[in-house]
Amino acid sequence: MSMDKLSCRKATFLSVKKSEEGLSLSENIMLSYHNKLCKVCKFWDEQSRLIDYFLKNNIEDRSSRSLTPDEKEHIKSKVMKSP
What we know:
4 helices; mainly alpha; single chain; elongated
């Protein structure tokens, strides 16, 4: 596949694949090249990595933290108010 023909959809797929299992050298080069040309995909890639980072850290910390009764009530009130 030519680097200039990488669609945003395929770049998004490669970005997710990179975070899950890694990319081959050619895939990594194609994604890097696309992200240099497409600022939207670059922004999405950065945001996706940030979300992955925070989710990973929260899952690891979850066993040592639980919601307080006030936090539970706050969530319940928000859910009950939603349409």
